[in-house]
Amino acid sequence: QKEVEQDPGPLSVPEGAIVSLNCTYSNSAFQYFMWYRQYSRKGPELLMYTYSSGNKEDGRFTAQVDKSSKYISLFIRDSQPSDSATYLCAMSARYGGATNKLIFGTGTLLAVQP
Amino acid sequence: DTGVSQDPRHKITKRGQNVTFRCDPISEHNRLYWYRQTLGQGPEFLTYFQNEAQLEKSRLLSDRFSAERPKGSFSTLEIQRTEQGDSAMYLCASSLILAGAYNEQFFGPGTRLTVL
Question: Which residue of B has its CA nearest to A3?
Fold first, then answer.
């Protein structure tokens, strides 16, 4: 069993829809929870990170972490065709006050149809 | 451009050949990571450096793989006697470790390796 599980999709939605992306994990040591966006043949870029449990909002994006259920989510409101990409969840433990290696999910391919 | 750069962007080689990739991190970033990403999968951790010291290696990093970061600046990843299973995107990331702060990893564009 992988440490981080993510539905690979693909997920196709119409423009303006609310998108929900999710990951589950098994390692209780994870303290940092990230969402990365990756366009085709490019490196991942950080969208948002959350430390421990809670919600975080940034514009049209909201990240939620429920450590008791080992479940994290990313919501995209008013989705745009430019949001079409692969969304990767990533997690890391905390060692000595600094983040460490990232453990990624498989990524969910999202297509927003105009 | 002050981001992470990787060279080459694409590499096609024949099975059994040796290849070397280079990563130039963001200036003054003291930590450098290598990941490997195969089609339809998320990146998988290979190894990382704190300055010039290699602090952790994944079990994915077989004896055919070696990484260096001389002088704590750029890094190289060498694969000897390449196999078709080595075909993947090799990603480099760098971060600035500051105690008590979130240390974002910035990724480069990757080197896509194809082993024929």
Answer: B44
Across the interface, do A101 and B48 touch by the CB < 8 Å criterion?
A: yes
pLDDT, mean over chain A:
93
Asked if A104's CB is within 8 angstroms of B91's CB, the reply is no
- pLDDT by residue, tens only, chain B of 116 residues: 579 999 999 999 999 999 999 999 999 899 999 999 999 899 999 999 999 999 999 998 899 999 999 988 999 999 999 999 999 999 999 999 877 677 899 999 999 999 99
Collapse the DSSP code of A55 into the 3-class scheme (helix H, G, I; strand E, B; otherwise coil) and give the result.
Answer: strand
Asked if B41 reaches chain A (Cβ–Cβ under 8 Å), the answer is yes
CA dihedral over A95, A100, A106, A109, signed as positive or negative: positive
For residue A43, the chain B residues in CB contact (below 8 A) are 4, 91, 93, 107-110
Structure token pair of residue A80: 């745009």
How far away is chain B from the Cα of A64, in angstroms, using its nearest Cα? 17
**Which of B44, B54, B52, B27 has its CA nearest to residue B91?**
B44
The residues, any chain, with a CB within 8 Å of residue B103's CB and separated by 6 or more, are A98, A99, B31, B95, B96, B97
Residue A45 vs residues A13, A52, A89, B61, B76: alpha-carbon distances, Å = 22, 21, 11, 24, 22
N- to C-terminal Cα distance for chain A?
Answer: 37
In chain A, residues with a C-beta closer than 8 Å to the C-beta of B33 are 101-102
Does B70 reach chain A within 8 Å, measured CB to CB?
no
